[in-house]
Structure formats: C-alpha cells, structure tokens
Amino acid sequence: MHKYIKKPIVALAAGIVALSASLASAVEIEYWQYTYASRVKAIDTLIESFEAANPGITVKHTHFPYADYRKKVAIAVSAGDGPDVVQLYYGWLNDYRDSGLLQPLSKEAFPHSSIESDFFPMVSTMKVDGDYWGLPTAVRALALFYNKDLFAAAGLPGAPETLDQMVEYAKKLTKKDSDGNNEIVGYATDGGAGQEHHFVREVLTRLYGGAPYSDDGKTVTYNDAAGAKALKFLTDFQMTHKTGASGFMNRGQDAFKAGKAGMVLDGSFRINTFEKAEDLNFGIAELPGHEGNRFNFASYWINGISSKAEGEKLAAANKFLHHITSDAAMQLWLDTVGELPAKPAIALTDENQAHPYFGPFIRGLGYATATAFVSEQPQRQAIIDAIDMVTLQGASPSDALNKVAKDEQEVLDEYYDN
Amino acid sequence: MFVSFWNKLSVNQKLAITAWLFLAVPIVFYVCIRFYPTFEAFYVSTFKWNLLGAKKYIGLRNYEKIFADEDFWLVLLNTFKYAGLGVPISLFIAFCVAYFLNEITRWHDFIRALYFIPFLTTAVAMAWVWKWFYQPMPIGYFNFFLNYLGIPQQPFLKSVTQGLYSIMAPAVWAGLGFQVVIFIAGIRAIPRSYYEAAEIDGAGRWQILREITLPSLKPTVIFLTVVSTIGFLRIFDQVYSMTTNGDGGPLSSTKPLVLMIYEFAFDEFKIGRASALTVILFVILLAISMFQLWLMRKKP
Fold first, then answer.
1. Burial class of residue B132 in the structure, from the number of CB atoms within 10 Å of its CB (0-12 exposed, 13-18 middle, 19+ buried)
2. Which of B52, B147, B269 lies nearest to residue A181, judging by beta carbons?
3. Mean pLDDT confidence for B56-71
4. Which residues contact A211 (CB under 8 A, 6 or more apart)?
5. What would the mean pLDDT of B126-131 be, rounded to a whole number?
6. Cβ–Cβ of A193/B268 closer than 8 Å?
7. Is cis: bond before A111, omega within 30 of 0?
C-alpha cells in the first residue's frame, strides 16, 4: 500500500520542483496605463502575441481610471514600486524625467537613426539631453466634424476649406427661435475647454503668421498681433457672429452628438462617440486653412521604461517596448482604439489616407506640431482664461493675451530655471 | 508575571486600565490619520517637493509665493464669500422653515423628511443635477422658465458675477435639512412655561419670537454658525462638479481655497505649496473654532 502512495508523491514533488525551477527562470514585467476599454483591449491583444513569441516572459497589465492615473503612478514609483513599462502623456515627460522615474532608452536597442527615420518628426520632442525617453504607439491630431444633414439643409456644398468659409458657414447654419435663443449653433465652441485651446495655440496662431512659443520653447510668444487675431477669430463666434455659445447643450461634443451643432472640433478618439449616435449623419474634414497654409496639433501617449527595470527585466522591457511600437501594433491600435499610427509608413498608406474618418486626421499629421508642455494644466488654463476675459469681461484680445502670457511665462521660468 | 501584576491592582485601577485600552483605539486612529498628517503638512510646507523626487528645503518660500499670488487673494475672497453669505442665508431660511414647521402638526414628519433628503444626497450627484438646471436653453429649466416669463436667458455658471452664487445655492439647499432639524430640536427645548407666562402677560406673537424664542436659541445658532461656517470654508464638491473641467472658473471666480489646494497638489504636483495652503486653511479654521469657544463661554 505504502509504495502506491509514495511513488506518486515523489513524482508530484519532482514535478513541482521542476515547475518552480522553470517559473524562477521566467521574467515578469509590469505594464501600466489608464483604463479606457479599447486601449485595454488593444494592450491585452498585444500582450498575448508578445507572450506567444517570447516564452519565459510574462507581462502583467495594470490599469486605473484616468482621473487617478498620474497620482497613482507618482505615488507607486516614489514608494519604490510600480511598472517596468509605463504609458504617459507626452506633456508629462519633463515632470517624470526630472523626478528620476524614467530611464533613457538604450541606444543599442533603439538606435536614434531608426527612430528619427521611422517616426513622425513630432516624436523628436521626446529627445531630451541627447536621449530618447519614450516612444508612442499612436498619435492624435485634430479635425473638423460636420453635420452633413444640417449642411445640406443650409445649402452648403461641403466642409469649409478656409477660416473665412468657416465663419460664413457657421452663420448660415445657426438657427435661433423668435426670442433669439440658439436652437442650432453653427460652430459649437467650448470656450477653450476640450481640444479648443490647442486650436488657438498651435493652429490659429500659426495660421495668422505667429508662433505660440520661441523655438527653444522657453518663451511665450503668442501675445502678439497674430495671437490676438487668433483669439479674436475664436471668440468672435460668440461675441460678433453669435453662431455659438460656450455651454450650449453642455459641451460642444454634446451639442454635435444631439444634432444641434453644424461643426465641432475634436480628435479621432471622438469618432466612436459620434458613430454611436443613431440619427447623426456626420463627415470629417481637415481643419480649415488660411492664405494657403494649414496647421494642426498633434499629441500622443508614450511608452517609457521606468528606472526600476534592471537586468533581465530591462531586457524584457526593451523587447516589450519594441513589440508595442511595432508596425503591426500600430495598425492594431488604429483599428481598435482609433488613434493614428506614429510612423508615416504605416499611417500614410493609401488605404488609411483615403479612409473617410481617419483620412483627414492622418493628412493633418503631415503638418502638425506638438506643444512642448512643461506643466499641462496651468498652460491649458492660460488660454481658457484669455478666452473668458474676452467673452465675459469684454477685454481686448491683445490685453487678455498679455495678461495670461505673463502667467504662463512664470510657469515656464519656474521649470527652466531649475 | 502579567497575571500577578494584574491581581495586585484595585478594582478601580483595573477599570481605569480597561477604559484606557478601549479609548486607545480611537486615540491611536486619530493620531495616525489626523494629527500626524496635520503636523506633516507643516513640515512639508517648508519644502519644494513634486511627490516623486527629493524634497528641497526652501524655508518660507512657499508662503511668500502664495501671498504674492493675485489668485490666492481672489480665492480667499471667494472662500469668505461662500461662508459670509452662505451661512446667514442658510441660517435665516432654516430658522424660518423650522419655526413654521414647528407650528404645524399635519404632514410635519413628511415635510421635515423632504427638507432632510438633500442632506443625505451625494453632493456630486446633486451638483450635476443643478448644473443641468443652469444650462442655457433648450436644456436648462431655469432659463426655460425665465424665457417663459419674457426675461432674457442668464449665463449663471458661465458668468464671473453669477457663478459663485449659482454654486452657493445648491450648497445652501443641501445643508438646510440638517439645520432645520437642529433648529426644531432647539425650539422644542425651550420650556413651555416661558411662553405661557408671556401669553398671560399679553405678549404678541412677534414679541414672543423676539424676546423668548430667539434669545433661547443662541447656543443653537452659535453651534450651527460654526459648523456651517467650517462647512462653507471647506466647500469643494459643488465647485469641482459644477465648473468646466472642475477648474473653479470662469477666471477663478468660483474657486475656493480647497480647490486651489487640490490643483496645486494633484494637477501641478507642487506638494509643498499645497501643504502651505493647507496650513493657512488650518489656521483660519482654528481661529474660527477658538472664537466659537470664546462665544460659548459667555453665558447669556
């Protein structure tokens, strides 16, 4: 009797020892991002294919709600815990880098020459002090969403091509009741909230011949004639043309979704939202140009390697970063999440460029710039405040810009003086 | 050894030790989650720290920067507006409601419950409903009503002059239930004999209210004033939920101190500056509480 029990137990024990030995040789790395259903799904798919191709490496995927994301990453890492590979907004890079949370990407694993030849030029913002600190899977640009039914009803042929046309169309699209209350707004403005502050900074200011910041990014330069024209253009929709009011139907995207706005400005991630609205027949067009020029704003989330990763884990992290910034990963990201590939070779395929929804965004990438934020929140607030000063306090655009430029310059000085 | 020590003690000593053992739980709890962080805030407020990197000692620079910041003074003024207007308005309404509610017996409990429900409701949920009320047409009820009366639409939350009051209204409403209940309890605690004596002497309704009810309610009024002052000085949920991006706008016109602390700490990661602001708020609240103790000590 004894030997019948003994033998299987010995065999089982041997099995356990063998299994744990193989587990010990396996490497587990952690990947962190914020919770957004399609992003989570895309990363899960990528982890599956990565683990299949790299036996011995497992990736633990952790995600939190966006509202807590920055806080949790900061707290976990400052406690010596946290991810090996982490997703962060490009505008946060400086905060993270200064705090020693990230390590530079190794030049052997990620040669600079191939980054610079493969990725869109805006990714160069991630090169600081001679090193790259992270790479994006996807990038985002802005475009103009327009309501095809309202355009047809107003007898308009298609999306506006220029700023002047945009104003003219907005006037034609706007409908008011007998008391002068808005029923349909031509252009749904958000008073700078949402994506609109980017539109003022990187698109309108440049269209009017200016630049938002000096080339080294250390000085605010939008407080000039070009900036004033840019601010006037946007605030005139509320003040002069009366073709929209901030807060109408809550947010611009809500008004548009409800079919109560002719045009609204947003990113490709909004396509999903609008597709779900049943009676909404919408089109997407490139942002209007001015005097033959076009500009756009691009932003992205990067994947960086935390300073915690060393040895085997670092090697695994490098492999994983390669995997999630590969060509296949980018196409998957576009199809799953709706964000645009970060490499021109993948983004600018004929098929993608001709896509009725992605096409205008992808074409916009070709002439897009990314703001080098040092602290995104107060810098965003500066533009919103300038818009409020003009629309609520009747300040002149140039006075408003001078005032907020001073505040924003303090933010920049505080950062660069360190 | 412990047993022999325990056996030597008197019954009273044993009781005292047992009591202290039980009391130790909340004391330890409070020391860890209240007092320690409070003193830590004093300490951190003298550093420049972004939560991730090393702390850098900068003395009182955080305070200097705060006092030199125009926005801080605006925010402080806003905070005192919330308290300075919100407290008297809410106490006045609460007293009127309690006074008349006390007179009626029919539906008394039901009406009191109606007033109390907002107090139990999540501030965030309520703020969102009110935010919706304030929308321009075709969504907002208030503007719809104004339009019906032939009055032009009002911007409410989208205005630098109306924003703060628009946010104060739901905050007043939310606190009303609690205040009404306390006032009713206060009114009922006044001995009936006072009223009977006054009636025999031929005092009128107004005179009774002024000479008996109000003076007898002084402790209630002081208690409610202090509690709701502290509540209004710490207002956050309503402002965060009702303004665009929770920024206390437009142009910081509705931003209270606590929201500014939150922004410094969790949007800009200036933990030192945020701690310094916390200390300032602490000092203000402490001063008000001390003033309350002083008022309470003086017997009417």
1. middle
2. B147
3. 92
4. A205, A221, A222, A226
5. 92
6. no
7. no
